[in-house]
Each structure stands twice: as structure tokens, then as C-alpha cells.
Fold Glycolate oxidase.
Amino acid sequence: MAALRAAVGADGVLTDTEVTASYSRDMMPLAPSATPVAVVLPSSTEQVRAVVRACAAAGVPIVPRGAGSGLSGAANAVAGCVVLVTTRMNQIIEVDADNRLAVVEPGVVNLDLRAAVEKRGLFYPPDPSSYDWCTIGGNLSTNAGGLCCVKYGVTTDSVLGLEVVLADGELLRTGRRTVKGVAGYDLTKLFIGSEGTLGVITRATLALRPLPQAPATLVAAFDSTAAAGAAVATIVREGVVPSLMEIMDQTSISAVEQHLNTELGAEPGCAALLICQSDSGGDAGRRELAVIEQVCRDSGANLVHATDDLAEGRMLLAARRSVLTALEVYGAWLTDDVCVPRTRIAELISGCERISRECGLRIAVVGHAGDGNMHPTIVYDPTSEREFARARTAFGDILALGLRLGGTITGEHGVGKIKQEWLAREIGPVGLRVHRGIKAALDPDNLFNPGSMFSMS
Amino acid sequence: MAALRAAVGADGVLTDTEVTASYSRDMMPLAPSATPVAVVLPSSTEQVRAVVRACAAAGVPIVPRGAGSGLSGAANAVAGCVVLVTTRMNQIIEVDADNRLAVVEPGVVNLDLRAAVEKRGLFYPPDPSSYDWCTIGGNLSTNAGGLCCVKYGVTTDSVLGLEVVLADGELLRTGRRTVKGVAGYDLTKLFIGSEGTLGVITRATLALRPLPQAPATLVAAFDSTAAAGAAVATIVREGVVPSLMEIMDQTSISAVEQHLNTELGAEPGCAALLICQSDSGGDAGRRELAVIEQVCRDSGANLVHATDDLAEGRMLLAARRSVLTALEVYGAWLTDDVCVPRTRIAELISGCERISRECGLRIAVVGHAGDGNMHPTIVYDPTSEREFARARTAFGDILALGLRLGGTITGEHGVGKIKQEWLAREIGPVGLRVHRGIKAALDPDNLFNPGSMFSMS
């Protein structure tokens, strides 16, 4: 403890259990957590190095975290650990508009970066749902996605280089400031999505894009999920790349309609809504939306509405983004993030309807239809042990369904402390062995986030 | 040798030294090579596994290779090795147009894949200069780039998953068939660009894009490289993303003009040409080219010519692609592939002019201006030991210049067997230690391509 105070100053070490408890877990209710022995808030790379060296010397595990918006328990404290919080390292060090890049510390809030680069006519695409409070460091560690991914990819696609503190306190610099580069192994992308198990990211060089055109928005209502799924598959097949393509099932729609006390433009009994945007601008944007509109009509949409109005588009997106909040009227929620081939979305939704009937719990399906990344969200009574148990079973049933459909157990939330067994199932024994080999090579004493993602034995 | 014949059949093992010599090296004259003890041509993943197990048991190193079009000696044989050639594994196993992906064996020629998916209205972007004879396996192992990268990224941006034979003969499957996925470490991108040092890629799942619109082309001539460099920086700054933006310096231009017996539309004494394309189509494409045209004029271009004519566009690109061939009139060539921030291109070109004067050799600079990846190409008399020595010195001087300008030693060709010391210089001792740790974890006996990229001691 003295070493930690020497490393970051007395005000950077929290030990009051009432305070440290608030740093013990993220937003995933299923994941186990513990109260950390201390929470440290370093302000610089050098302080992170000192903390890592102190913990390594004392054999105390470190769980790195940002804002704690994660949905897999990756940032949850483990017994006897120090939680290393990066939120004080929140400087945007550089925005280089000429080379379209930014250099940031890990504690920068996603929205703050977006706003800062937008002033320079630039765009940082990754936009996880928690973008107004999650941090870039957490986004990097989980390889976060968002609504932008159908056109702009996930976090790893926007990163040029990293600075990482390793388990022995040494500082590793990966990547570069140039657009291309193949000097050595792609360590940048190895650390991205490694969920704090390989090191602590203390700085990142991010690739920016030109600010896209103002988006035009289209909403289409379907009276079957199969029709909506067929529309998505055909849009993909037609070669249109919308900047956003979201789907909401009947349960999501009615929850949001009640929550916002509004109609989403759908007739009563509407089974699925598609919300699409194009940010191509001009006639390219109009052409894209026209193709999408035609496909939706051909697939049996009973309502299609397109608009250039920015306020209306924002309102539709706000409705989409409010699904989880809207569901809280009915209970606590537990959200999956399976990703399936885009041709299998309708099957995923109908499978979730079956699982809902089997477990007797409401399951709302909402998701990023454009890339097949779906969020079936199970609603349960948090005061009922039995409902929680049924929710847990349904959570696993949905993962199994995703795998059966040729998908992955996690499209953007990560493995964390809830899907270790599922990871082993997805990647198999050879994959697991390679993971353990890499972890052992970089973190031989299992200092960083032990037991998260996979166990070493 | 018996084990190899058992593994791949007698016709899959070559030992005649006149034949094996032709598999001893790639296209980089600087790199050391040796004659392999055998060349094996497996036809299946199982055969690759058998070869790897046989070599591992006998302690014989394996150098994997495709067509041998590489420019860093990565595929060059080392003493006492078996060269494992993947060209017989040349099946396109699947093209799934609905999910925009293809599954291929490593020996498929890049152009064959492009043609096969184009028939389905799809596009595989990576287009290294050797695209008409290089293989996908080699592209994956070097993380190859090309002319497309300014808009579509490098090879790693088009890969969803891999099948890799590891040093113990086990088969690792990485990645997935879905657009997104964060289950575990990003092993796919770790193997891409690892230059055959970690395993043998036997299958790849590739992400495809919709076929872009027919390209419109613009060529601009400048009477100083500084003006051309300024135009590139301003185009980037203006937020235009052309589908291609190539630069040729005076030496390249005159070599090509002589070679093709044509004028490239430039006045005599033209110092630099920019060739740009937009594949956005319609008014979006016209808008992009109009911005580029205006920027070129404002930057002092003395000739700007835009055309929708496909044949004329192809001719201009063919001229650009013929630079290396054109230079062969003057001697052998040695090409660098430094990548610098896009604002530093003019400085790179003027630095190469200085190096050319110092070494007394012709240096043509041609490159992918849109992403700062430049190919200064040194021309020397291959019969003169002294010229070759001077060319080697100039090659290193250009790498040092690239690093000084904030760039990397290799944007797309790789480290191979010529830039090991430069890699160490670029990534530093901590980076090198991490590389060695990962290599040791995956290939403890240093079976695959030993000494390439970096040495283990």
C-alpha cells in the first residue's frame, strides 16, 4: 500500500470499502466480482508503470478498467486485486488533421474525442451504446463496436498504434503514425480486445476519417421477422452499404413505445422495424436509400418512411438507443451479443422467441442487423432467484443458438468473466492452448486480470 | 525424405538441385538465400500437417512460400531447410455472395480470386503490384498492400478467419465467418504479416465488398515535387478519399515514357505526376475528382486532365504499374517501401534526390501517395560489385530517412531477410523481446522460417 501511495500519491489510492465497492464491477449482472484491496487512479504512464511494478513485486493481481460500462464483467475485481482505473488519464494529446490521426490517453470519454475531432472536420467512427460515458481505453480493451460498424468497422479498424505497460513495468510501443505498416507482428491488434489480460494501454494513436455527410434516415415496418431478415439479406446482396442498419423486434418496439409514449410509425402488431441511414450525401445517399426502400417493399414491409430531416433521424435513433432503458420497466436485463451471418438473422430472432417461451421470460431482440450482431435481451425480476436462474439458462441457450447458426458468442461485448467456458467451446482446445501460450509469454505471473477470458489451467 | 514422400507423394517432393534452386528465393536481390534440401508441394491441409510433423521430428526448418513474388526475402530458403510451397492448394472453396465472403486455399492467385468474385458482383480489394501472379497465402503472410489501400486498407482488413498448421502439426482455426467478433485474442491478425514465422496458413475466410462503380481518372503534372506533395496533403486535408492516388517522380516518368514510347501528358521537365481515381460513381465521383482537380491547380499543377474513359484510365494505371519494368533498361533495381506520414511525402522525395546524388545512382520514386507508402527504387549495374554495394548503402539510407520522417521501414513488403536490424531499430528492445516471446510460445523449436524478420538471440 505504501508502494502504491508512493507511485500515485495518497489521493490516487482508494481503500475505503464503501468507495472501492463502486469500482468492483461493470454493467453485467451475471459476472462474479470481489471487492478490491485498493483502487488506484494513476495520472500518467510513469505512474501506471510504478503501480504495475509495485503489484508485480507484491504478487498482487491488477484489474485495469475505464468507466466500467462493459457488459461482460471483464473489468470486475477479483479477490485480492488492485483495480487500476485510467479515468484520470483523460488528455487528448494531439489531433493531427493533416494526417487524420489523434493521440489520446485511455481515460478520454468516447464522446469527448468525437466532439474534439468533429471541430476539425474529422470523424472517429466507433460508437458503442455507452459512447457518452465509456472511455477509449475500455473501447480498445474490448474492441468495442457500435452502430457504425456496418460501414466503418470496429475499434481495431481505427487504431494505428498503442503504448502499453507490460507485466514487468516495461513500456511497449506498437504500431506507428502512418496509414500502412508491416514492420513486425501486428501487436497493436493483439492488445486490442485482449480485455486487460496482457498489459495496460496508456496511450493510443487513432486513425480518423473525414466527417461524413449529414445522414438521411429510413424506417421500415414488417409484420414478420422473417420478412425483415430477408430484407437485410437482400440489402447486403444488392451491394448497398448503409452507414447504419438496426433491427428491433416486437418486444423492443412495444417497450420503447410505452417508454417514450410515442408511436414508432408502425402499425399495431408490427413484428420488426428496420432503421437504416446513409451518410453518403447527395444523389449517392438518395440512391442508397432508394434501393433499401425498394428492397423493404419487395420483402413485404407494410410501411416505409424515408427522411432527410436530421431531427427526425435523431429521434428514430434515440428510440433505438433507448431499448435497454425502456425494458427496465419490466425488470432487470441481461443482454447477449451473439453475431451471426447476416443471412441468419431471422432464424436468430425466431430462435429467441422459442427460448423466451421455454424460459417464460420476456426476450427483446435488438441489434446491428447490418453486421449480424444481435442483442437478445432477457428481462427478469432481480428479486427472484428462480427468475435469475432461468435468465442465466436463457443467456446460455442464446449463445448456443448463435454458435449453431455459424456465429460467434460475442460480437462486441467480449468474454470477460461470464463466457470463459463458451470461449473454450468456440475456439477449441488448440485455440485455447495458443491463447494460454501468448498470455504466458507476455504475463508469466498471470498479473493482469487473472481468470478473465480464460483460465491458465 | 521418406517421411516427406509419405506425406505428399513422390511427385510432391523435389530434390533435383537445378529444380529446387528455382524455389530458393523471391524477387529481392539483396536477401541471402540457400538451396533447400527439398521442396515439397502439398495438396491439402492434411499433407501440410504431415510435412510439418515430419520436419519437426527431424529438426529440419521449414520456409513456407507461395509464388515467390515477395520483395524482402521472407520466402528465401535457409541452409538445410525444406521449402513448403502452397501453389498446389489453389482451390476457391466457396464464394458466399449473401454474406460477402470467400473461403480459399493459400495457393489461389490474387487475380483468379478477383475474377471469380467479380462474376458475383463482388470485390476483393488487396491488389499488390504482382496481383496477376502472387498468391493469397503470400499476401496474407506479408499483409500485402497495393494501390487500393488509400480507400480499402491492406490485406488484414479483408480477412475474417484463418486455418493455420502450427509447429506441432496441430490445426488452429482463428476468427469466424461473421462480420464482427471479439471472442478471444485477435489471432487472425497476429498470423497475418507474420511472414511464415508462426505457422503455415492453409485456408482463409476473406471479407468481400460490393463491386465499386467504374472509376474516373485524373492525372496532374507538377513542376516540383514539393507542389505535388502539397497537393496530396491538401487532398487528404479536404476529406476526399480517392480509390487510388499514386505519385511518380521525374525519374519514373521519363523511364516509363521511354519504355512505352509515349508521353504521359506531361510537359518535358515535369517533376512529378499524380494519378488519382474515384470509384464512387455518379455525382459523388465527379465531386471527388472536382475537389482533387481544384487542389492540384491551386497547388500549381501545370496540367490537369480528368477522364471517365475506362480505357484511358487503364492506360494511365498501366503506365504507373510499368515503372519497375521500365527501369530495367538502366540496370537491376532494388526497391524500398518506406511509409511516411502523408504530409512528409515531398521531403521523402527530395531526400531520395539527395541520396541519389550521394551514391551516384539513379533513384526513381514511385508510390502510393494516398497512404504515404513510397517505393524509392535504386537502379544499379548488377555486374558491378561496387555499384551493388552503393545501392545497398542507399537502400539503408532511405530506410533511415523514412524513420527520421516519422515513418516505418516497411509499408507492405515486410522485413524478411533484409531488414532484421532495421526492425530492431524501429520497434526497440522491448518490442523485440515481445516478438521473441510470442515466437517462442508458438514455435518453441524455431521450426518456421528461422532468422527471418528477427533472430531469436
In short: The mean pLDDT of chain A is 96.
